[in-house]
Amino acid sequence: MIDGLPDGLTARHPTVEDHPRVLAVLETWWGGLKGEAGALERALLLPRLYFQHFTTTSYVVEHRDGQLAAFLVGFMSQSEPDTAYVHFVGVDPALHGRGIGQALYGAFFELARAHGRRVVRCVTSPENTASQAFHTRLGFTASMPVDDYDGPGLTRVAFTRVLELA
Amino acid sequence: MIDGLPDGLTARHPTVEDHPRVLAVLETWWGGLKGEAGALERALLLPRLYFQHFTTTSYVVEHRDGQLAAFLVGFMSQSEPDTAYVHFVGVDPALHGRGIGQALYGAFFELARAHGRRVVRCVTSPENTASQAFHTRLGFTASMPVDDYDGPGLTRVAFTRVLELA
């Protein structure tokens, strides 16, 4: 389903049963970034609705034993016909540097192209410098940090990636 | 654009400029339900993406002077072709009892039908008894509260409303 994954890992679209599994790994993988407020922020950014209504444009990656290795939650913009949006991506830090994030984004770019999208957008917090470096390597252009982007105190860096024609 | 609104109020689809305006009224309208944690919860449930990518299935209602009176943020499920989802609705408490919420849901039901949807879903927190009574009056069926529905500690009541054929 996804090209470029390391041996022993497979990808599929998520089901609603994956929602608590993804929330459970978030805290481990994010290493407690921004403490308890960060934990609540991450949980609230992934309500169950994403695992009910946007499953066909999202992925989970698992080991042979079913253990979660990575996920990507994204959707096709409903009001911007040329835009696809990546809402939340996570890769087990023990597996960083093996191209899993790149493979997930690659699969999403293909999906976006198949839906006639020309631009992929996403945001991250300014504290998450690893995420910013990762997106820049993938060809995204970063905005300056925007204060209160997502609400009071919720500063964000916005990323844009134009898709090449297939 | 919407039938059944009181005189002096008009509805339109939101733009990204409405995002901070909606967040600003949330605290007033929700009366500080669940305190600071509730405030953060509400802000995080409405990231800017809803005012960028789901504007065509969402509404804001304004007074003649532009003051916000109500809003509804919803979308057509991307993975469940028969389902439409109402994510967040607010009405100025000073205007409660005048049918504005009902008018917003009525408009969303019409939109959902026009998109071939047969079911509308939404969730609320068990503390929000006014919301539960409102949805029951509108013909929604409530689930029992589901612990950790949206994540650890985030209990929700889930509502379902079957749409009559047009």
Automatic annotation (TrEMBL), chains A, B:
InterPro entries in alphabetical order: AcTrfase_GNAT_prd (IPR017255), Acyl_CoA_acyltransferase (IPR016181), Bact_Acetyltransf (IPR050832), GNAT_dom (IPR000182)
Keywords: Acyltransferase, Transferase
Name of the protein: GNAT family N-acetyltransferase
CDD domains assigned to the protein according to its UniProt record, in alphabetical order: NAT_SF
PROSITE patterns listed in its UniProt record: GNAT (PS51186)
PANTHER family assigned to the protein according to its UniProt record, in alphabetical order: AMINOALKYLPHOSPHONATE N-ACETYLTRANSFERASE-RELATED-RELATED
Residues annotated as domain N-acetyltransferase: 9-166
Organism ancestry: Bacteria, Bacillati, Actinomycetota, Actinomycetes, Kitasatosporales
Highest taxon, organism lineage: Bacteria
